[in-house]
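Replying to the earlier thread about multi-chain prediction with a worked example.

Input:
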Amino acid sequence: MSRWYYLIIICFILPIFIFGAVSVFDTDATISISENRNLAKMPQFSLESLFNGSFTSSFEKYFSDTFPLREKMLEANRNLNRLYYFTPESSSNDLTLLIPQTGDNVVSGGEALPTDPTESTGVSHQPTTPSDTEPETETTAAPSTEETLPELNTPEDADLHEGSIIIVGNRAMEICYTNQENMSLYATTVSSYAEALPGVRVISLITPNGGEFYSPEEYHSGSMSQKDMIDSVYSQMDDSVVTVDAYSELRKHTDRYIFFRTDHHWTQLGAYYAYTAFCQSTGLEPVPIEDFETGSFEGFVGSMYTYTSKYPQSSILRDNPDTLYYYVPKTESSAVAYPNMEMNESEGYKVSVVATQINSANKYLCFLGGDQPLIKITTGAGTGKKIAVVKESYGNAFVPFLTNHYDEIYVIDPRKFYGDGTPDMDLEKLISENEIDDLLVIDYPLVVSNKSYSKMLANLLKEK
Amino acid sequence: MVFSSLLFLFIFLPASLLLYYICPGIRSKNIVLTILSLLFYAWGEPFWVILLIISAAVDYTNGRIIDKFRGKWQAKAAFIASLVINLSLLGVFKYGSFIVENINSLTGLALSFPLLTLPIGISFYTFQTMSYSIDVYRDKVPVQKSFGDFLLFVSLFPQLIAGPILRYSDIAAQLSSRHTTARDFAYGTTRFICGLGKKVLISNYASAVVDTVFTGNQLSSIPVLQMWLGIIMYAFHIYFDFSGYSDMAIGLGAMFGFKYTENFRYPYISGSITDFWRRWHISLSSFFRDYVYIPLGGNRRFQLRNMFIVWALTGLWHGASWNFVLWGLYFFLLLALEKYLFAGILRRLPGIIKIPWTFFLVLIGWVFFYFTNTADILPAFKSLFGLSGNLLSNSATRLLLINNLPLLIICLIGATPIFSNIAHRFMLDFSKRRIPGWFYSASAITYNTAMLFLCTVSLIGSTHNPFIYFRF
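Result:
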């Protein structure tokens, strides 16, 4: 009789032994095509990372990312999710998916997307910062007890869920939850730039995202209204900050292709309308859109698909990719990316302001070669003016339009200067040494309501 | 480490089984199991594993002293030392900042308290070691002379981080001699897989729904139906998570030759709150019964006072926050009402009324439990009953209801003993040779393999695998 028990035991033990053994050796996968992201790497061991728990949690992530037959299992998981995220046959304009969006995703932006190592656009030089380092720097910096424990989702982690992702028809959108305290922090931080930088014109541009215009009413009203949020943040800023009403310009053109459906960014056309609003507020003459030479990249499936690829509802995004239209700057300009504010020649590498060729799946990297710590753009505008731009990735599509109006543009990504092991950035020093006239802070709602992002902004100013 | 992780399932578990079964005698098996358990704990708590060992050493020593000086003052001193040390550990690590915060807000002082992370499982293992010392003092269990075996009792990884709370008396004999039969091991695999499925295939998804329902939205604007969906899913999340962990513990224990007592008995089919607490986290409620309620006088004197103390403490055990105390006292109130007023009425009601009514009362309890910020509790109740001007439902509510309809059905069926009854019947039939062995074996293998596959798939694609016991 007991042989039947032994059979049960063997059939339990064999699979876990075999998969376990294979998983130890089969660890060479580095990118996941189906999820559109880089896989976790084997974490560096140190006593510090062991004792703060980051080593073990990164290791588990790495183990899971390199698990045998992972791609097949993910496919199976998508099928399993047909049960858990059950959707009966529905009309194409229905809301089909609603999942929480995490602050980590928001702050790391499009970095989850892989960059193809063979590409020729200068993006290949992009330092590989795995996006999962961000949450860790956050957890070590955060003061509360709960937050020092990684990988735990508790209702108290107010920082964690910044909003949600919804899919309506063939469009995915991030929905922003406003948080008065975090919004005030953002406003105060931008105001502190104006205070710390007398003589510099500080300009704030907060753009809505697609969720504000294309979601069902309840997702852009009340506490989710981005219009109210932008108005409220602007009103809390110091009077010396020039605020740009990009909202109205974008609102006027919602029938145009101003936001991607499969990516969380705006299109460059969307950025153009924000640019016209920027010109109105700053007294510049915008270049007519017709004057630009344009081109396009087909088949762009962006971050919103990455975030939702585990759910069967997202197949509609994969099957209906976006097309990215770019506008080549009229002014001859060259851009060099630097890993830190020293801007040493030897460490800099050329990036394209707008690349007209790209091999990466993430077409949005054609703007400024993606998120770089610091980029210096030198243009032939001949206006004698200089600007610094503090931005997250929304700024990447916007900055190329500034080449017509400024001789030098310094583009700073605050996320790259925050946390352990990152270089220092002293915004005041950068601005005074390079005699910069204007400072633009350009952000989209999900980072405006993200406390960590405001901390990153504040971190660019060094206390005297 | 947690059971519901790929690393545990495919590395730690097979390696442990291999090492354990290649060791010849019980001594070496115990040593290997202790080392594995400490590694298991240190993986999630690399520093505070020290505390676990210290806690074990303290109670081991106290046990020896109590035994040596039985009836003398030294025994009493060691007994008191054990209580003081264990409760202080809890006091400092779990309740320290909570106590200081409350003192500050009462007195207006600004005392500071160092930020300590709560070591995982501290409430489980301090209760285990404390109960040992108490039992030795009361001469209910023989003293453990081997520190190694005692450390094994404290650190045994199957129950280390999420219970059940072991009684030394239940496990003492098994520490020095145990035989794993093929039958026990086979039962252990299926029991473990069943628990894993509860955790990975039900609880994790239920928890994702809870998050979607409650986070980000202002409580007052969440539609009524969505609130109810959220709280029902929370009830299922916490049940399947907790009972899943207990199943996994029992299953793993069986694989290593240990027999643990049951910790959950289908609490959501209870016909009364009294019944509910005989079915929910049994090892905790019996701990409080035996070590607090009865010593206080039980139902012989000051019964109401005793119940009050027990339920306030039970609440507080779940976390250092007032909402848990409220949750405990809510059950005190219900239990007192049942005892003194409704006992007769409840007995006469049919199950079709009693069971849903009890489930409703338990759901109300989960509202206290979920909202750790007490300021959210009243708004949550208002929204649940449509008193905050919220809608009945909106497009998100409809979407969530449709998306989660299959999950809801799985939860409802899974909360009843239907499948368990079938499985037990099946086992009985097999042992009485009423069904052929190959059929029994094939069924168990199919179940195990299919569930393991689904759990692996879900873990690989997982976006959500919370560990809810870190407050305990």
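The two ends of chain B are 16 Å apart (CA to CA).

Feel free to reuse this layout for your own posts.
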